[in-house]
Amino acid sequence: MGSDYYETLEINRNATDADIKKAYRGLALKFHPSRNREKGSSETFLQLGEAYDVLSDPRKKATYDKFGEEGLKGGIPPEFGCSGAWSSKYAYHGNPGKTFREFFGGDNPFADFFTNDEPLQFGGLRSVVVKTQDSHIERDMHLSLDDLYHGCTKKIKISRRVMNEDGCTSSIKDKILTIDVRPGWKEGMRIIFAKEGDQGPNSIPADIVFIVQQKSHLLFVRQHNDLIYKAQITLEMALTGFSVDVETLDSRLITIPINDIVHPSYNKVVSGEGMPRSQDPSQRGNLIITFEIQFPEKLSAERKHLIRQALTLKD
């Protein structure tokens, strides 16, 4: 004996399209495997999907009403198809979760029901399902000082759990996230990818947050928008003057003359040679040159006398 689609949906043969939709909505929610763990519920859910797939389609419904399940699935002569009947052999795709998802819309078929609004009631029972978002996931993103100076594009592969079409099972899939690093970004900058965490039937995916961590640099230390460069000089240079050659992060060689007497706390500030400002990369911080004075390990008596004599001479 074939299936009675009307009986499956608990409606009569005079049911309107609205009646068919209403019946499927209620029964599909009642027997969905994620809600109903009773024996036979999965089979009922499958039968509901096939019944709705046929009765919601005018051509399939016309064929079923006139020729029954045998005519629908076995095919009818083409001449009968001119009245709008389904003349090809019908076979249900066998995925009731897909039917359910297409009916309710969206990747998560329960999205309209798992909310923080008033709870829904099914079958006279009060069912309260509060959909909450998973805690955000933080990951460090290590960038070189050159990356933060010039800007760059980083592509990061993540693996996450994604709900399958049936709305019940899930699988692990990879995804590439693209981050456009702007010149001047600082350590601690947070880049948020909303709802890119694991998917689940009863939860909102977590946000994934990447936090910028700056790698150390061989020559420069960053201080906000300024760059600190330490130059090692001799005592002679500190007292008599010299020049410092610095290769910048954009590969220019700049020469800075030092005509002052350099003492341990002396700094030379070169305006506009620091890091770009993230809000306006055309504006830059400063290059600050600090000095480490290398003193001689020992001096002869004669050299000490000459130094003493030079320092005590008056102009």
TrEMBL record:
Top-rank lineage group of the source organism: Eukaryota
Record GO cellular component, one term: sperm flagellum
Chaperone found in the keyword field: yes
Subcellular location: Cell projection, Cilium, Flagellum
Keywords: Cell projection, Chaperone, Cilium, Cilium biogenesis/degradation, Flagellum
One GO BP: cell projection organization
Residue stretches making up the J domain: 4-68
InterPro entries noted in UniProt: DnaJ_C, DnaJ_domain, DnaJ_subfamily_B, HSP40/DnaJ_pept-bd, J_dom_sf
Oligomeric form and interacting partners: Homodimer. Component of the axonemal radial spoke complex 1 (RS1), at least composed of spoke head proteins RSPH1, RSPH3, RSPH9 and the cilia-specific component RSPH4A or sperm-specific component RSPH6A, spoke stalk proteins RSPH14, DNAJB13, DYDC1, ROPN1L and NME5, and the anchor protein IQUB. Interacts with SUN5. Interacts with IQUB.
Name of the molecule in the record: DnaJ homolog subfamily B member 13
Organism: Pagothenia borchgrevinki (Bald rockcod)
